[in-house]
Amino acid sequence: MTTRLYTHPVFLQHIAPPGHPERPDRLRAIDRVLEDEAFHLLDRVEAPLGDRRTLLYAHPEDFVERVQLAIPQSGIAQIDADTFVSPLSWEAALTAVGAANAAVDDVFAGAVDNVFVAARPPGHHAEQTTAMGFCLFNHAAIAARHAQKAHGAERVAIVDWDVHHGNGTQDIFWNDPSVLYCSTHQMPLFPFTGAKNETGAGNIVNAPLSPRTGSETFRDAMLSRVLPAVDAFGPDLIIISAGFDAHHRDPLAEINLTEDDFDWATAQLMDRARRSAGGRLVSLLEGGYDLHGLAFSVAAHVKRLMRG
């Protein structure tokens, strides 16, 4: 197996106020753990700057302009209660999109087997016309559209195991049966969406988890709801919105997963990708706010991507 890692120094230059959970140290923790000898075969590539036009795959032009105009010349500006931008946030967000799209290109070209994108800001809360929840643009949604437009993918599955529901991805694909969106997430919890009865055009599969549950409940949700939906859909590409904030150490939620759970879920999705998508799988970093839990969960995830 060949696994590619995309990241870029500009992701460290997206700055929020002191004490904000979505901080540059998240990527520093990931960088440190991936320096281990176990990852010496990881194909490390600097993320490319994205094409601004691809933002329009998921967001209207007036929204893109509003985000760009919100970027300050200096200091930190606030977009909503918990979403902030600094002078290099536009470049960071556009590079995150560029990395996601390049990852799609890589797996369709057969250049690598799978890709992990370690980028920030995250993306899955960004709705068509709203930046929120630390997110500016929806990288997973844009990458799914890129797969369809550039590579003729007929069906793309996005599986989101972040502990917070990906309301943005659900919003963007609500009426689009060519994209399957499946999410495991704690409920109730921000953004207070993701009930089982939110099904869109039959392409939305939500598997909410109760607070203070753990591995057994998560794996049951995957086995009973998410994986059967992916099997029935038969995607040409699987994209993972890979948040690691369901880890038991995370301060923003109350789901008690371990690194082994992320390893297991990765293996399950790799198996589905082999069945219908020629193995094509792209994983995009979303949340994860305890540095130890994040780093070791990413390590387990990437090891599984590399092992197959």
What does this entry show, briefly?
With 308 residues, the protein is of the alpha/beta class. It has 8 helices and 10 strands.
Report on this structure.
By secondary structure, the chain is of the alpha/beta class. 37% of the residues lie in helices and 16% in strands. It has an eight-stranded parallel β-sheet, sandwiched between helices. Strands 3-4 form a two-stranded antiparallel sheet. Helix 6 (215-233) runs parallel beside helix 7.
| Major beta sheet summary | 8 strands, parallel
Beta-strand residue percentage: 15-25%
What class do helices, strands and sheet pairing give? alpha/beta
**CA(first)-CA(last) distance:** 6 Å
Task: Give start-end ranges of low-pLDDT stretches.
Answer: none
Shape: globular
Please estimate the helix content: 25-40%
Question: Strands across the major sheet, in which order?
Answer: 2-1-5-10-9-6-7-8
Number of strands: 10
Q: What is the subunit arrangement here?
A: single chain
Keywords:
10 strands
Lay out the secondary structure.
Layout: E1 3-7, H1 25-33, E2 43-46, H2 61-70, E3 77-80, E4 83-85, H3 89-109, E5 114-117, H4 139-151, E6 156-160, H5 167-172, E7 179-186, E8 204-209, H6 215-233, E9 237-242, H7 259-276, E10 281-285, H8 291-307
Parallel strand pairs: 1-2, 1-5, 5-10, 6-7, 6-9, 7-8, 9-10
Antiparallel strand pairs: 3-4
